[in-house]
Structure to design on (233 residues):
């Protein structure tokens, strides 16, 4: 199969078919992929998926990701030299780290530790912080009953506490080495206190180690670039 055989390339044509194709939007899940790609320098082409026009529901997008969510990629040079379509940002980070040999420890035990923290983000931080966003920033903020909001705020605090303990005495999440665990996690922390404006609710100031690591994360030049990719179409 060639890249041009993928229906998504009809809606988002590849200018550089030899490069990795990224279909995304600069959300906390989307920027995980663009930050990784900016950090490693793997050549890629970014395509803007607009939620305003429900692009993620188009037949072309669904042909790549039936779960109608960004980010998604096609690596034209996947395993065995064949194109590899992939979605779910955690799977993408692990795949790209293995492909490039970057941002994941080589040592087996630390590699699994890194994957463990990526899963912690995927199963905990992402879904729970996302719920906080719904109840604080989006439609749920007008609900009179504050119990659902408080439940997710409490869970977000608990997760921040876990992260804060892990970062105690460590620069980054896994043994001081910047990795895909950080790339998965910090866009969500940034979003919680930034875009969602939930910093006071989750008492963010209590989590000094998380605060310090987030500040270091957003100062990285590749992170600054990745946070703006893809550019709005
Ligand atoms: N677990 C997925 C979640 C992806 C996700 O929730 N993406 C959101 C944007 S941050 C999305 O595409 N939403 C569009 C929709 O639900 O229609 C991942 O990490 O890739």
């Amino acid at each position: 199969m060639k890249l041009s055989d993928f229906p998504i390339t009809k809606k988002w044509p590849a200018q550089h078919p030899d490069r990795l194709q990224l279909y995304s939007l600069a959300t906390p899940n989307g920027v995980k992929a663009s930050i990784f790609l900016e950090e490693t320098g793997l050549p890629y082409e970014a395509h803007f998926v607009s939620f305003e026009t429900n692009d993620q529901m188009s037949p072309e997008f669904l042909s790549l990701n039936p779960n109608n969510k960004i980010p998604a990629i096609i690596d034209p040079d996947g395993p065995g030299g064949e194109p590899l379509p992939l979605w779910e940002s955690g799977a993408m980070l692990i795949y790209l780290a293995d492909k490039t040999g970057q941002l994941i420890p080589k040592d087996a035990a630390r590699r699994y530790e890194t994957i463990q923290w990526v899963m912690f983000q995927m199963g905990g931080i992402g879904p729970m912080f996302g719920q906080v966003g719904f109840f604080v920033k989006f439609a749920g903020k007008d609900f009179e009953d504050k119990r659902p909001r408080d439940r997710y705020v409490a869970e977000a605090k608990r997760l921040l506490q876990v992260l804060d303990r892990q970062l105690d005495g460590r620069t980054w999440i896994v043994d001081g080495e910047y990795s895909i665990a950080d790339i998965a996690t910090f866009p969500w922390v940034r979003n919680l206190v930034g875009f969602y404006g939930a910093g006071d609710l989750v008492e963010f100031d209590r989590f000094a180690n998380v605060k310090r690591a987030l500040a270091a994360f957003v100062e990285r030049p590749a992170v600054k670039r990745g946070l703006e990719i893809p550019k709005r179409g």
